[in-house]
Design a protein that fits this description.
Strand order of the largest sheet: 1-2-6-3
Shape: globular
Number of helices: 23
CATH topology: Cytochrome p450
CATH class: Mainly Alpha
Radius of gyration: 28 Å
CATH architecture: Orthogonal Bundle
Number of domains: 1
Number of strands: 8
Structural class: alpha+beta
Helix content: 40-55%
Bound molecules: protoporphyrin IX containing FE
Length: 558
């Protein structure tokens, strides 16, 4: 035996060598475990996408979630400017997402690649817990045949030809808004918060469409329950409120309040959706049902949709409008009530009178049939752009690879459209992009137009998509036509009766980020404020309301 071999055998047999090798083994095991954990903590559903910059500072397990804070859209907008790249990738826990910020890049993504970004991602809390009983809303459904059919049915119910059949509803609901402004402000003597009346406006519209049911009181118990549950669910859809969607370990924590809360909300929502659908069934039996989506489908006059699909459509329409419309219209009233906004009100009123010289009755009768007054259209468009209530739109997911400036964004990647950033892009809207200014949508020779009794005032011809508040492309908002009509009708009726003045004690917050009191919610909820409603000189509001009451008193009576 050579000395080398002997020493190896000795090494092998000696207790010291056993210790040494077991230490090495232990060390390797610890290293392997550590590296595996590190790998697992940094792992994402889609690996790093070469050629798309990643925002620095991601940490294991959470990725960029902690850095994003509560207000994801605003942080993403800041990163765009700080790192000078409008398109970049981030990690939401275990999910990789590509964020698109500038106006032009959003157009390129949503229109240029519309078939590739037709899908929506599914999330653990919203899809797995909350939606497990009534099916997904259209806006949260991945793209498949059922979604296609539901989107088509919703498109028919909300499309241009159908809008004509809703004139009575627009007339009645917008009358109720002005009626209650009049009542609660004690004919303009008391400052009021306008939001509850606008919430009822939005909710009644979609309840009428879906179930032929409405509620007259803005403080009705069922109405408040639907609004409360809907808002709470909207909070549970946001990434900043729901780490368990992106950090799976959180789902197994013994005191997982989110799952518990989601189940409670699901039960409350099931209760009122069941109640509404049953009410339609009873009305059908008694022959008292009103024309609406669920009665048409329950009577099988329409498509071959299942009952879960009918529920999903109704749920989509109710949840599509009940926060977005109040968010936009309430904030719009806030901006109009400021000293700068009062100038816009005066010009709008002049433009309204130019189109309807016959007086307030004529204005009211024509307010829901067409959107004819350029200044009012400009106010509606600016309100939707400036207050981008759905700041991060609804997330998309790629179905096929996308070639993006030489990089390949793989299929199944989450795409986040930063509509707030695109809507305030100074490269597109100019240096005053962060100012509320309806006149950006009107002919530029406004001064000349104003000196000529506004007769030269026109809307600028639209060149493609004007803003991204309704999204764009293959999954754009199905309700945008009806939303614009609701906003237009309310604005023109309110402005024809009142001048709106901001309260000095409780003025509106008109900052396009800070107006929102819940930054983490999917849809913005404006901070509370009050306004004074000063009746317009020469307008007999009593008379206008009486006329409207007589005209609408038999609409949608149970
Ligand atoms: C000011 C009012 C509204 C705003 C700002 C708004 C905004 C949006 C946005 C940003 C999307 C996602 C678009 C995309 O991914 O490109 C969307 C989808 C949708 N909206 Fe609206 N919306 C409004 C009113 C309404 C109303 C009144 C309804 C129904 C009555 C409605 C029904 C829907 C539906 C069904 C979808 C899902 C479309 C799909 O995923 O295929 N929305 N909305």
């Amino acid at each position: 035996m050579t000395s080398t071999t002997f020493s190896s055998v000795y090494d092998y047999l000696s207790p010291y060598s056993t210790f040494k090798s077991s230490t090495t083994l232990g060390f390797s095991i610890v290293c392997t475990i550590f590296l595996s954990l590190y790998w697992y903590a940094n792992k994402t559903d889609i690996p790093y996408i070469k050629g798309i910059p990643e925002i620095p500072g991601a940490v294991p397990i959470f990725g960029h979630l902690l850095k994003l804070g509560d207000d994801h859209a605003t942080m993403c907008e800041r990163w765009w400017r700080k790192y000078q790249t409008s398109v970049y990738q981030i990690k939401l826990g275990n999910t990789r997402a590509v964020v698109v910020n500038s106006f032009d890049d959003v157009r390129r993504m949503l229109i240029g690649h519309q078939s590739a970004v037709i899908d929506r991602p599914t999330l653990y809390t919203f899809h797995g817990v909350i939606s497990s009983t009534q099916g997904f809303t259209i806006g949260s459904s991945p793209w498949d045949d059922s979604t296609k059919n539901r989107r088509k049915a919703a498109g028919q119910a909300l499309g241009r030809p159908a809008i004509r059949t809703y004139f009575d509803m627009f007339d009645l609901e917008s009358y109720c808004v002005v009626r209650d402004f009049y009542r609660y402000s004690q004919r303009g003597g008391v400052e009021i918060n306008v939001r509850p009346f606008i919430q009822r406006y939005a909710l009644n519209t979609t309840l009428t469409l879906c179930y032929g049911i409405r509620m007259d009181s803005a403080y009705d118990e069922l109405l408040r329950e639907i609004l409360e549950v809907g808002s709470a669910i909207s909070l549970l859809r946001s990434a900043s409120e729901n780490y368990q969607d992106y950090v799976p370990a959180f789902r197994y924590l013994p005191s997982n309040e989110k799952t518990q809360r989601s189940k409670e909300l699901r039960a409350r929502r099931d209760k009122y959706l069941g109640y509404l659908l049953n009410k339609v069934r009873v009305m059908i039996e008694q022959g008292t049902d009103k024309p609406c989506i669920s009665s048409a489908i329950l009577k099988d006059q329409e498509t071959k949709l299942t009952e879960v699909e009918v529920s999903s459509i109704c749920l989509s329409l109710v949840s599509g409008g009940f926060e977005t419309i109040p968010g936009t219209l309430t904030s719009c009233i806030g901006s109009l009530s400021t000293p700068e906004g009062q100038v816009f009100q005066d010009r709008a009123y002049e433009d309204i009178q130019r189109h309807y010289p016959g007086g307030t009755s004529e204005i009211w009768m024509n307010s829901f049939e067409a959107e004819k007054v350029p200044y009012v259209n400009a106010i509606v468009k600016e309100a939707a752009r400036y207050y981008t209530v759905s700041a991060l739109s609804l997330p998309r997911k790629t179905v096929t690879d996308i070639e993006w400036d030489g990089a390949i964004i793989p299929a199944k990647t989450m795409i986040l459209i930063n509509a707030q950033a695109a809507n305030h892009d100074v490269d597109h809207f100019g240096p005053d992009a962060d100012t509320f200014n309806p006149e950006r949508w009107l002919t530029s020779n406004l001064d000349a137009a104003l000196h000529n009794s506004l007769s030269a005032l026109e809307e600028k011809p639209s060149q493609g998509i004007q803003h991204y508040s309704f999204g764009a492309g293959s999954r754009a908002c199905s309700g945008q036509l009806i939303a614009s009509r609701l906003l237009y009708t309310a604005v023109i009726r309110i402005l024809s009766c009142y001048k709106i003045i901001a309260s000095e004690a409780e003025p509106p917050n008109t900052d396009y980020v800070d107006y929102n009191q819940f930054k983490s919610a999917l849809v913005a909820i404006p901070r509370d404020f009050k306004v004074r409603l000063v009746p317009r000189q020469g307008v007999e509001i009593d008379g206008i309301l009486r006329e409207a009451e007589n005209r609408t008193k038999n609409y949608y009576q149970e």
